[in-house]
Amino acid sequence: QAYVSYSNIAALTHLAAKPAWEITGTLDDIKIWTHEEGDVLSLKVEMQVKIPSHLAFSLLSDFTFRQQWDKHFLTCEVLQAVNEDEKIYYVTSPPMTGHKPRDFVILVSQRQPCKPSEPYTVAVKSVTLTSVPPSPEYCRSEILCAGFQIYSDSNSSCTVCYFNQVTSGVMPYLAANLTGSSKSIEDTALECIKFLE
Question: Would you indicate the residue range of the signal peptide (predicted)?
Fold first, then answer.
């Protein structure tokens, strides 16, 4: 368990530190970047939020709030609180046209910064729980690496970076956005900012 939670945080930190992110879109308070490597596409959404970083951290690390701003989360329940910094959630997503609804079993690991220059971190990855086997109603999907890094800008503002490493399985959801406009990503980011503020 300790290894899994460490590797969850480490994978997100490693993803965030990769060179060669390409910026693909900017709005007032939102920047969208992508990074391609083989068949893995990574997405980074940077949001400027007018609340203190510790508050953003507490709101974003509790995934039961997620469906309030992210329409890709239909339901989200805590399966297991491993300790105060790790929880395992069961998430369902609404169906896309012609697809079954998807479900996920994810580990969410949170870390406070050790130094002021470091970000708050909320890392997400799929895990396997024997108590929650795949069900025929859902297409069990996997999150390789996703999460948030939250940097403090001042006492009343912070920068929230959302990361998601996407494999071909999640592509139907993003393909439409990345080929046309990244509208759905921007909409979700705007909803996230609105929820936080």
Answer: none
Angle ∠(42,44,125) on CA atoms, nearest 5: 60
Query: What is the spatial distance between Cα 9 and Cα 145, in angstroms, rounded to a whole number?
Result: 9
Q: How many separate domains does the chain show?
A: 1
> Under a CB-based contact definition with an 8 Å cutoff, are residues 44 and 32 in contact?
yes
- Copy the structure tokens of residue 179: 């080929």
Calculate helix-pair angle for 183-196, 171-179, nearest 10 degrees.
100
Total residue count of the chain as it appears in this document: 197
CATH code for the domain of 181: 3.30.530.20
- Residue 107 CB coordination number (10 Å): 23
Parent domain of 135: 1-196
* pLDDT tens-digit series, residues 67-79: 999 988 999 999 9
